[in-house]
Design a protein that fits this description.
Keywords: Glycoprotein, Membrane, Sugar transport, Transmembrane, Transmembrane helix, Transport. Belongs to the major facilitator superfamily. Sugar transporter (TC 2.A.1.1) family. It is found in: Membrane. The chain is an all-alpha fold and about 525 residues long. The chain contains 23 helices and two strands. Helix 2 packs antiparallel against helix 5, helix 2 packs antiparallel against helix 9 and helix 10 runs antiparallel to helix 11. The radius of gyration is 24 Å and the shape is globular.
Length: about 525
């Protein structure tokens, strides 16, 4: 049984009662059957395949490249020093070696910022699926350079590899949540949109595991640790020829209504014709409005888009300034102050990463059942309190014997509640605040803010921690408090709403009444 033809489908729904759709029986003279399609949309096979494959093949490598670089740092520094001495007859001083290492680490973040900035153009030029394919290509190029840099005795290959995976990571964080949100039905949009956040978090843990000394964290195998993610990329990109393009991109950006309808039929199945008709009507309405803003300049200069753009950038930047990276940077020393040996502290740090990952798996369930505003406010407020407490406990940590253990509890509590809102929501909130035309620019700007703030944290935190000591966590606490206020007064509830319903609520800038 199938729709009579694609053109007829656009006139089908108005002729039906609510929750019913007439299906033809291939020309049979029997009375047409009526099927109830008012049920909530389910995870179809294609939607499930795209969600998991794109997350494991694209988002997990982003986190992997973040988490893998820390453990073998000493080994890579020693190798770089030896290679430069052999090739250029130059013996690097300790300070010059640290500058070189900072460059190797930071070029990944610079690549992420560049990839994010170019994400809008790439997404509109090559499509959402095209961005996914380009990211995979960049990941493979970077992985190949990691695999052969030690054989070629080339520090330059290592740096270029970090740049390529940075470009791929920036493009992924800018476009993958948008792709998943656009192919998902409205009721599953939040659950699928959070997949990217879960993938990045999981990738960090996987990278930490494979860089352990018991696996690839040795002087002979560290380059395999850097490139092992290629296995995931190859496996998950094998079925990419079956992946659909975003129907909203096809129709609203390219004006190809027929192909958009075909992709919707593939994603939802022919048993969900009322749902498909509803989604097509929403796209008809959006394409008939004057929301045609798509260039960077037009989005940045549009007063109606100012507030949602500020929210997206503040959520992304605030996620980095909320202290999660600083917590993991400092956690080993905290665990050591609690009486653990260095080796045990490293394992405890891995345990903290596993807690972060385990909690992130709650994301799809929470996003499907709980509104965005209360989740974000709750997460921001609790994390602000934990960070404030951590700062003062660290300052007085030697005063009482129980304070180190209390500090560990606060660290674990912060990591747990971070994944309720601060962790997942910034990744996909842009897809829920913006309609299709300006969405790619908004997602790119948000991702750019995230990578830029990550770069600032990476460069500034070690110096600030030496100067401010334990009180370095107070600005992170303040950031969480400011995110709480921004959410309370200016973020409209987006769960279960189409962006066309949300956009008017924030169109008046800071004079908007979102509640």
């Amino acid at each position: 049984m199938e729709l009579r033809n694609l053109e007829e489908s656009q006139h089908l729904c108005p002729q039906l009662t609510k929750g019913e759709v007439i299906i033809s029986n291939g020309g049979d003279r029997a009375p047409p059957k009526i099927r109830d399609c008012s049920k909530k949309p389910q995870w179809g096979k294609l939607l499930t395949l795209v969600g998991y494959a794109s997350t494991i093949g694209s988002a997990v490598p982003v986190g992997y490249c973040i988490g893998v670089i820390n453990s073998p740092a000493t080994l890579i520094k020693s190798w770089c020093n030896d290679v430069i001495n052999q090739r250029y007859n130059v013996q690097l001083s300790a300070s010059n070696l640290e500058i070189l290492w900072a460059s190797i680490v930071s070029v990944f973040l610079i690549g992420g910022a560049i990839g994010s900035l170019g994400g809008a153009w790439v997404a509109n030029k090559f499509g959402r699926k095209g961005c996914f394919l380009i990211s995979g290509l960049l990941f493979m190029i970077g992985g190949i350079m990691f695999s052969f840099c030690r054989m070629a005795n080339s520090v330059e290959m290592l740096i270029l590899g970090r740049l390529f995976v940075g470009l791929a990571s920036g493009l992924t964080t800018a476009t993958l949540p948008m792709y998943l949100s656009e192919i998902a039905p409205l009721t599953l949009r939040g659950a699928l949109g959070v997949f990217c956040a879960v993938g990045v978090t999981g990738g960090v843990v996987v990278g930490q595991v494979f860089s352990l000394r018991n696996i690839f964290g040795t002087s002979d195998l560290w380059h395999y640790a850097l490139s092992f993610y290629m296995v995931l990329v190859v496996i998950c990109y094998l079925p990419c020829c079956y992946f659909p393009e975003s129907p909203k991109y096809l129709y609203i950006v390219h004006g190809n209504r027929e192909r958009a309808l075909r992709e919707l039929l593939r994603l939802r199945g022919k048993d969900a014709l009322v749902l498909i008709q509803h989604e097509m009507e929403e796209m008809d309405m959006e394409i008939s409005t004057k929301v045609v803003t798509s260039s960077f300049f037009s989005v940045l200069s549009d007063p109606a888009l100012m507030l949602p753009l500020i929210i997206v950038c503040c959520f992304h930047g605030g996620q980095q300034f909320s202290g999660i990276n600083a917590i993991f940077y400092y956690s080993v020393s905290i665990f050591e102050k609690a009486g653990l040996s260095t080796a045990d502290a490293e394992w405890a740090n891995l345990g903290a990463g596993c807690l972060n990952l385990a909690t992130s798996f709650l994301g799809p369930v929470l996003m499907a059942k709980v509104n965005r505003r209360p989740l974000m406010m709750f997460s921001s407020a609790v994390c602000a309190c934990f960070l404030f407490t951590i700062a003062f406990i660290l300052y007085y940590i030697e005063a009482f014997s129980w304070l180190p253990m209390a500090c560990i509890v606060c660290v674990m509590g912060y990591i747990f509640f971070y994944q309720f809102g601060l962790g997942p929501i910034p990744y996909f909130i842009g897809a829920e605040l913006f309609e299709v035309a300006p969405r790619s620019v908004a997602m790119s700007m948000g991702s750019l803010a995230s990578w830029s703030c990550n770069f600032v944290i990476g460069m500034a935190f070690p110096s600030l921690s030496r100067v401010w000591g334990a009180f370095v966590f107070l600005p992170f606490s303040l950031t969480c408090a400011l995110l709480f206020l921004l959410t309370k007064f200016y973020l409209p509830e987006t769960r279960g709403r189409d962006p066309s319903e949300v956009a008017p609520l924030v169109a008046k800038g800071f004079r908007s009444k979102v509640t």
